[in-house]
């Protein structure tokens, strides 16, 4: 269940390792900033925002990342390339974490990516994303390669076959169009709602078993799109649901997680760390191995337990 026969690919972005066998590396957490209704935004048209608060949020994520061993970055939402440039400059002046730009319109996304290349920030940049809805995937891929882009997200989804197998089929189609030789390929298995998150998780397993690529998803899509939950369960109920869903997804074949607004970092990092600790012991029960990786949450928080288990054994 937690060991794949296929060799697993481990990608590296700015020194951060992503992928591998379940439990081999900490999951990669990707926050969102400057999204619609983000309170730090003052005026999107002029790209004005609360810089002090934005820096506080970024530094909080940095601190949580250091405490838990879970690497992280921010994907910044922008409507225009000019707006994206403002956010990129601010971000690079604030932190060494990798970054991404979240723009739905392909041509605008391409122009923002040209700015990344212009300032030589390709090593820290995760392109998000190549999608099955893009009209010219081959052209987009070639443009990215010409700009020296190394790290990309590929979104896997088939409108006609929304099953896990459909996501695998969609991915293979995109890879065949030249997207198979980037240095980093992260597969986003397209979360549509909370219960359908399970289809994405199963797709992660299918893709990792067949292709060995790092997989994950925007699990916050499933939780934040359930609008009625706050009325039915209250704000605390929503927060609990969000943490559980994203933690559980972490334990089921996920190498990364677009976890939603960065303001939720204080609950998401502990939730994901907890899930990964449980994953580590599940993997141990199956394989007899807990990796030596000091960044793993289980090695950070339960080192004495790990030593005892390795010395005395605790497998079935």
Present the secondary structure layout:
Elements: E1 10-13, E2 16-19, E3 28-33, E4 41-43, E5 48-49, H1 51-68, E6 72-77, H2 81-94, E7 99-102, H3 106-118, E8 125-130, H4 137-146, E9 151-155, H5 164-179, E10 184-188, H6 197-210, E11 215-217, H7 219-224, H8 229-251, E12 256-261, H9 265-287, H10 297-301, H11 303-312
Helix pairs in contact: 1-9, 2-3, 4-5, 5-6, 8-9
Give a nutshell description of this structure:
With 316 residues, the protein is an alpha/beta fold.
Explain what you see.
- The longest helix has 23 residues, at 229-251.
- The protein contains eleven helices and twelve strands.
- It has 316 residues and is α/β, with parallel strands linked by helices.
- 48% of the residues lie in helices and 17% in strands.
- Strand 6, helix 2 and strand 7 form a beta-alpha-beta unit.
- The chain has helices at residues 51-68, 81-94, 106-118, 137-146, 164-179, 197-210, 219-224, 229-251, 265-287, 297-301, 303-312; strands spanning 10-13, 16-19, 28-33, 41-43, 48-49, 72-77, 99-102, 125-130, 151-155, 184-188, 215-217, 256-261.
- The strands form three sheets. Strands 3-6-7-8-9-10-11-12 form an eight-stranded parallel β-barrel, surrounded by eight helices. A two-stranded antiparallel ribbon has the order 1-2. Strands 4-5 form a two-stranded antiparallel sheet.
- The mean pLDDT is 96.
Distance between the termini: 15 Å
H/E element order: EEEEEHEHEHEHEHEHEHHEHHH
Helix proportion: 40-55%
Quaternary organisation:
single chain
The main sheet comes to: 8 strands, parallel, barrel
- Strand arrangement across the biggest beta sheet: 3-6-7-8-9-10-11-12
- Which outline best applies? globular
Query: What proportion strand?
Result: 15-25%
CATH topology: TIM Barrel
Q: CATH superfamily name?
A: Dihydropteroate synthase-like
Beta strand count? 12
CATH architecture identity: Alpha-Beta Barrel
How many separate domains make up the residues?
1
Structural class: alpha/beta
Low-confidence stretches: none
- Tell me, rounded to a whole number, the average pLDDT: 96
CATH top level label: Alpha Beta
Radius of gyration from the alpha-carbon trace, in angstroms: 19 Å
How many H/I helices? 11
